[in-house]
Amino acid sequence: MSEIESWQDKLIRSLDKTQNDPVSRFFQLATVDRDGRPNIRTVVCRRFNSNAESIDIITDLRSEKCRQLESNINASICWYFAATREQYRLGCSAKIFHQYIEVTKIKHYWDKLPNKNRLHFFGAPPGQRLTSKDVLVVSNTDLPPPNFAVIRFRIHAAEYLNVSELPHVRILYKLDNHHWQAKPVVA
Amino acid sequence: MSEIESWQDKLIRSLDKTQNDPVSRFFQLATVDRDGRPNIRTVVCRRFNSNAESIDIITDLRSEKCRQLESNINASICWYFAATREQYRLGCSAKIFHQYIEVTKIKHYWDKLPNKNRLHFFGAPPGQRLTSKDVLVVSNTDLPPPNFAVIRFRIHAAEYLNVSELPHVRILYKLDNHHWQAKPVVA
Lengths: 187, 187
Prior knowledge:
Chains A, B: Its cofactor is FMN. 2 copies of one chain form a homodimer. Chain A has a single domain (about 5-125, about 135-185), classed as Electron Transport, Fmn-binding Protein, Chain A (Pnp Oxidase, Chain A), CATH 2.30.110.10. Chain A has helices spanning about 5-15, 65-70, 105-110, 115-120; strands spanning about 25-30, 40-45, 45-50, 55-60, 75-80, 85-100, 150-160, 170-175, 180-185. In chain A, strands 1, 2, 3, 4, 5, 6, 7, 8 and 9 form a 9-stranded antiparallel β-sheet that branches. By secondary structure, chain A is of the alpha+beta class. Helix content of chain A is about 20%, strand content about 40%. In chain A, about 30% of the residues are buried. Chain A contains 4 helices and 9 strands; from the N terminus they run H-E-E-E-E-H-E-E-H-H-E-E-E. The model of chain A has no long low-confidence stretch (mean pLDDT about 95).
């Protein structure tokens, strides 16, 4: 099966081909709430580490997705590249980092964030009813507030789909004793 | 609260503005498997019925998503319109229709399908290992095979997000005694 390109190499190539389009850094993230209901939202990839097989996003610790991941660490990522008509579905487990756990990791992402995006984290919690008195006064954004967090998704299953031509190409990748096994399947 | 536009009207407008881009008909669908893990994939909207507050897709009855929806009817839809920078998150319950339940509904979608897409449904089950002997001989595609199915998602919760400007606009919509209640919240 060694002729089949790894999903990591495929994803690196998709990112490379679409690097000029900011939307290609958006993917959909699904989590499960306490009632067993799925939830999805679009998020921004801050880093894909092909060696560690992980993806990082930044988020607000007060968000719904953090509460859901605290009770169920399983997550599913769907990354569709409209330009190349390729889709990656990634089965992951999530770990949430905030400044009391890992200051350096947090600071790394905070430093890369433009000031207008930093301000977001000093406001009222996401999902709270909007009130007219939500006036934000922030004097210093050099350091992140305690609710700024990084979520790292470790990938343990992957599926590649390419619908640019017929027949569609679909490959399942599974971790078997620390080695990825690829299986072409019916699309 | 009557000044807030309904999510249905907003979605109609987003679809209208993006009608020339086929990719704007794609959305992400999350389901939950028997182990409580989320699963996402990109699917194509075949119909949004704003009065019935439902969305239809077509699928293969032998697909993973059908198995998952049979054990847990809860689904979550994330529809991101890259052109307008609007996102709709829809909480739904799913119902699967196939020809033994509702022939007319099935036939309606089958008739609209190009022949090359119809052929897909006569092949081996999706997810099955690809073998070289998968040669497809189909003499007549006028009628759908028993595995052709329609999934109807009834929407019971919605969230609208617009990130085209700062501050971002986020509105939660909930069904309260058959009436939708809108609540602007922190994005």
